[in-house]
Every structure is written in C-alpha cells, then in structure tokens.
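Anyone up for a design puzzle?
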C-alpha cells in the first residue's frame, strides 16, 4: 500500500509459456488503479522455441563460363529442433546465366540429429556475363503449423572460361607444282587454359598433303606455343586450295584457314631445225636447237648427244641460258657406212630433261650421175587458188651408163619454227639417158596464212635396192634451197 510515508513498492510478474506456444514476440499490458487514478505499462516477451541456423562454407566461390563450383550448406538445430528443411536459391548480378542446385534437395533434423550438410552447386552458362553475383539461399521449415525461414548468402565470381586462340602466318602461299610450303601457327593460352590440344588439317579440294611435326601439343597456363604445318603438292592439279587447321581440346574447338595456289612447274621445250640431215661421208651438216622457256623457267640448260660411232657432234653454245639457240654440227667420218642413223639430242636442267631425235642419212659419194633440168614451186602460195597445196616439181636426167633408182625428199620449216614438214617421193627406176619428172605435194591450212617457209630439195640415187625397196648406199644431190610465203 502506498501512502505519504511509503511512496514505492514492488511486485513480481511470472509469465508461463505453454509447450505448444509458437515462437515470436508477445505484448503484455500491466494496469493499476487507486483512488480514481489509472496507470499502465507494457512488457514485451519473446518466445524463442526450437529453431535452426543456416551457413555457407565457403561463403564465396569462383566459377568460369561454362563451368560449375560448389559450396557446403551447414544446417544446425536449436533447442532440439525437429523437422524437414527445404531450400531454394536465387542470384543477383550483371545478368542471367547462373543455375543453382542442391544435393540432397532437403534435410531432416531431429532431437537426436541436430546437424546436417548439403552441397549447393552453382553452374554458369557459356555466355554468362563475367562479374560478381550474390546468391541468396533460403531454408524453410513448416513445423506445428508455423513456418520458419532463414537466409544464407554466397558470393559467386564468374570468370571468362579457360580457352585458347590459334593464328597462322602467312595466310597465302604460292607453291610450284611438286614443291612444299610451310605455315607457322601459334596457340595462345587464355584465362588459365592448361591442357593438350589436338591438331588436324583438311584441304579443299583434296589433293595436296598436310603434316604436323606433332599432332598433339601441350599448352601450359599463360603460355604461347609455336608449331608448323607443311603442305606438299606432289602431282596435285594446278589451282587454289583452302587449308583448314583445327585445334581441339575437350569441348573447345578453333579453326584458322590458310590458302595455297599451286602454280605450274617451270619447264622448257626443245626443237631442232631441220629435224633430218643428209651428210656425205667425210662431210658435215648443222641443225639449229631452240630452247623455249615455259611457265617462267630460267637457268642453264646442258646439251648432249648420243649416236653411233662415226658421227661426232659439237655445239656452238653449251650450256644454253635464257632461251637462246645453239647450232649442232654433226661430222660424218669417211669410214661410216652409208645409210640411215639416229642422233638423240638431250637438254637437261636439274630434274627436267627433254630429248629430240635427229635423223641423219649418210650418202657415199658426191659424184653426180644425174642432171636436174628444171625445178619449180609456188613462191607465193595462195591456198584458195592452189587447193591448200604446195607442189614441188623436179625434172632430171640419168647421165650414167647404168639404170639408177631415184627418190626426191623435201624438208622445210616456218621461219618462226612452229611448223615443219618432211615429204618424200616413191623410189623410181630411171634408165640411162632417160628423163623423169617428180612432183611432191604438201598440204597447209589457214593457220599457216602469213607464214614464210624455208625448204630444201634433196635427191637420192643409187644402182640397187634392198628387199624392202630402199636404195642401197644412196648418193645425194642437193637440188635447191628456197622459200615461199603462204597467203589466203
């Protein structure tokens, strides 16, 4: 009781919480009244009850693009908490692309099991934006009709995925047919890439070959490795080719494309003019050798001959350089038997070799037993008026005392050495004192219009023929040398 002498007093309030009272904060209002005066005060009571806590360990992880990482969730009960706890998670950051998963999906705590763990795995898509993300994990339990929820937090740093690049140099090469070329290429480790890289090459269209010193290269973290690719052309057709170099490591694959152009192999051609010679025993004759470069050929060309004993050869120029000409002189010894022979002329430069056959006819004597009284041909050959035909006409007389077998030969070439002809008559028996007219005809087409031709008429004669009808030991007589021009 309060009075003038007792101005204060105390009283004890006891709050009892039933067993099933939900946890939370409760408000208790205490009121008093005396002599018409009323006074109130408020007391807040927090009912704790059973609960659980949630933590992440570690609380921060790093994930690369296209990769994943895990953190452990620690769940602990308070005051003998019992119940099933489910989990969910969501991320905030520079962009979408993170996916969270739990293993197991939930945990159950009881009075005898107050601690549990589960794995939280965070996966980043290959195109997730690198940067810092905050992942909020929420554990929720429904117990006795009341829900309890607690958050935990995980910081996730997304980094660019480990990768590598490939570059090649040069990107275009000309290769001479049959040759090889080498490309250098580099592999560069990015974002901590570390591992083996398998190499391959594909050519389009197929034909040339491609090879690496090593088909697998180990690329260490932060390193740059240089290697080579060799392309061989062998007999591949002339043209353009794409070479795709592929570098693969696991799910990573990169390509670089280089190009080659196979060019024709430099070469040269060999021609002889005239292609046939008639030489009297003990005399000599010449033929002009012409070398024509092809596909940019350059370099010295060595000349050589192969022929029978009794024929010696020499060149005015040897070796030939830059497509010049050389005069081949063939000397027939006085002891060589009359007849037909072959001299093989060879021109060689490195691995390139070309040959031409030169026919040589050896006559036994220069004594004249025939007289030529008339020779004619069209000096200006009109293809229209002469039916595309040049006709050489020869009239001769046998001045010997015995019959003679005679044959006329005409050889010629255009002055640009692009066209040649070699024609001969049949063998005719000419009685002593008799005369004979022989004609030889050579066809030309319109492609020869404007060309000038030089020619030689050679007469062979002898007193007998062999079983094949060829003159035995023929003697020769150069009838004439001349020229003509072809017009329309």
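Challenge accepted. My sequence:
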């Amino acid at each position: 009781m309060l009075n003038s002498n007792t101005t204060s007093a105390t009283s004890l309030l006891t709050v009892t919480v039933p067993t099933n009272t939900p946890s939370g904060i409760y408000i208790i209002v205490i009121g008093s009244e005396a002599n018409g005066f009323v006074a109130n005060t408020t007391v807040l009571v927090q009912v704790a009850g059973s609960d659980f806590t949630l933590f992440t360990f570690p609380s921060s992880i790093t994930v690369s693009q296209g990769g994943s990482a895990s953190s452990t969730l620690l769940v602990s009960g308070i005051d003998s908490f019992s119940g099933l706890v489910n989990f969910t998670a969501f991320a905030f950051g520079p962009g979408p692309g993170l996916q969270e998963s739990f293993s197991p999906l939930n945990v159950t705590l009881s009075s005898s099991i107050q601690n549990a763990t589960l794995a939280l795995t965070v996966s980043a898509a290959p195109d997730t934006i690198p940067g810092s993300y905050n992942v909020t994990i929420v554990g929720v339990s429904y117990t006795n009709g009341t829900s309890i929820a607690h958050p935990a937090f995980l910081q996730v740093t997304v980094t660019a995925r480990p990768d590598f690049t490939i570059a090649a140099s040069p990107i275009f090469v000309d290769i001479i047919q049959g040759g090889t070329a080498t490309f250098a290429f580099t592999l560069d480790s990015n974002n901590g890439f570390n591992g083996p890289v398998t190499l391959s090459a594909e050519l389009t269209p197929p034909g040339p070959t491609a090879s690496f010193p090593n088909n697998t290269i180990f690329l260490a973290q932060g390193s740059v490795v240089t290697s080579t690719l060799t392309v061989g052309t062998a007999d591949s057709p002339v043209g353009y080719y794409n070479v795709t170099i592929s570098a693969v490591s696991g799910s990573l694959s990169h390509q670089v494309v280089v190009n080659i152009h196979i060019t024709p192999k430099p070469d040269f051609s060999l021609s002889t003019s005239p292609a046939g010679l008639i030489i009297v025993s003990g005399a000599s004759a010449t033929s002009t050798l012409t070398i024509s470069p092809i596909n940019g050929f350059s370099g010295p060309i060595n000349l050589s001959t192969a022929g029978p004993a009794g024929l010696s050869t020499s060149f005015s120029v040897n070796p030939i350089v830059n497509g010049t000409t050389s005069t081949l002189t063939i000397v027939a010894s006085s002891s060589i038997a009359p007849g037909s022979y072959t001299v093989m002329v060879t021109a060689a430069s490195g691995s390139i070799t070309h040959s031409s056959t030169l026919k040589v006819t050896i006559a036994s004597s220069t004594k004249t037993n025939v007289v030529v009284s008339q020779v004619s041909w069209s000096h200006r050959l009109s293809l229209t008026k002469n039916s595309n035909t040049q006709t050489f006409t020869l009239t001769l007389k046998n001045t010997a005392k015995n019959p003679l077998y005679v044959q006329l030969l005409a050889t010629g070439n255009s002055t640009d050495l692009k066209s040649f002809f070699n024609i001969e008559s049949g063998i005719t028996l000419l009685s002593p004192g008799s005369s004979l007219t022989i004609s030889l005809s050579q066809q030309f087409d319109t492609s020869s219009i404007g060309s000038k031709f030089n020619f030689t008429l050679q007469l062979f004669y002898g007193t007998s023929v062999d079983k094949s009808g060829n003159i035995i030991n023929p003697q020769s007589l150069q009838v004439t040398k001349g020229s003509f021009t072809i017009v329309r």
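A detail worth pointing out: The chain has four domains: 51-159, 168-263, 267-363, 370-487.
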